[in-house]
Amino acid sequence: MRRPPRNRAELRAEIARRNPIRRVPQPPEEQIRSTWRQAAVPRIERMLARAVAQDAGGWHVAAASTDVVAGRSTVRTILGREIALWRGADGSALAGPGACPHMGALLENCHTDDGDVLCRWHGLRLPSEWPGEWLTYPAHDDGVLFWVRLPTDGEMPSAAPVLPARAPLDEALVTVYTREARCETSDVIANRLDPWHGAWFHPYAFSHLVVDEDASDDDCLVTDVTFRLNHTYGVPVRAAFTCADSRTITMTIIDGEGVGSTVETHATCVQPASVEQPARSVIHEATIAHSERPGFRAARAFAPLIRPLVLRTQGQLWVDDLEYAERRYELRSGFARDGSRDGGRRRGGVGDMSLPASGDPYQYLLLMGGCLLITLPLELVLRARVYSRPRRLLAALLPVVVLFSVWDIVGIVRDHWTYSPRFTSGWDVPLTPMPIEELVFFVVIPICGLLTYGAVGFCLRLLAAWRSSGSARSALARVDSEGRAGEGRHVAADGSSARGDHRPSREV
Ligand code: FES
Ligand SMILES: [Fe+2]
Question: Which domains can be identified in the chain, with CATH numbers?
Fold first, then answer.
């Protein structure tokens, strides 16, 4: 039994021992050391190759254990096959084809009885009533996940899945997060084999992330990392990443708060890639949290309240990590994240830069050119008189261009916004970081506005003259002559040579 602290230093040390939360202010991004050198592509690929070479024995995670309830079947797609999952009378895991052998009904949400699934269309009891052969698949429930063994290329069927070491489930807090991904299972594993992205890509969740190279090898990555609670406080831990089979990667806390806790990421192939369709996988991520602290046992009583918070954090991380994994697949396969083929625009493996489609870099400039072309009739037909008065146009544009350019440059320098390298030409305004497209925008759009304004004014003047004269032809002649007179006055006022009609006229 520990003796009570005898002085303030001992008391402080005891509080620190009991409290896993540390004051670890989050460093600003500019002070975080880049990790791209450590995250060497050949190293990650080498670790991935070793991981996927492991034989998973044909076992695939089909669902969370809680997804398969007694009395009802459910269907999942694995390796492109529909697989029905249900439970026997003793709660054991059972699996079979997802289509009824009678007329093909989907065996989803069917009633089950004494180890049989009762098809919803005509009540066929499977497997016991089907006179032919309706082969079931071996299934296994490990208390967290529901596994199915399927014939799988390159794998020797084994008696049971290889499970990572886990804390006793009756002393742990367990959650399973599930999400579908448009990539291959190896992309999910590769994401986890790159812990170096953690502090950069998920700064809200991780900081002070360092891979201990001395303790790591190609089969195990040992990482010191702080799980962030907020900008000031965090929980430092030491974690190891290992792969139990070709489709599983496990993070185990080996030092710090929650030693023995694991996060198992299992990737299951839903649909292999075809010529038209990208590969699809599903991620089952099981968090098995454990702690020796007396408070943890009490916290387990509030598991229904805590689980949604854990799932929310996992979900937030997987938004980013899915982007990573799917992008990795996109670069390799040519399938974009929305499932479309991008015409082979992307080639090669990770590290290749995407090549812009022809015309992409000039798209913005072409759009601006289109704006000028579309509004040209306003000058030529509707007498907007914008281009015909270049000095006035320049006087109108100059303040706008200067003001917005300064604002834009400040925004670029302060990193408030960036520009797509794909859709811009790459030309900057000389001596500034501002893309030429921005300058063109600040010139073209006000011109279009002025043309519209001038054209509307012309139409209103024409309408007023038409009403007073009763003749369209004389109304047009009158508005034209007024316009020329006004132009002459303005040119004279600008100091240039007077042109046009100087007869006094009323400005409309
Ligand atoms: S389709 Fe299943 S019993 Fe008829
Ligand atoms: Fe990540």
Answer: 23-56+163-355 (3.30.530.20), 58-161 (2.102.10.10), 360-494 (no CATH)
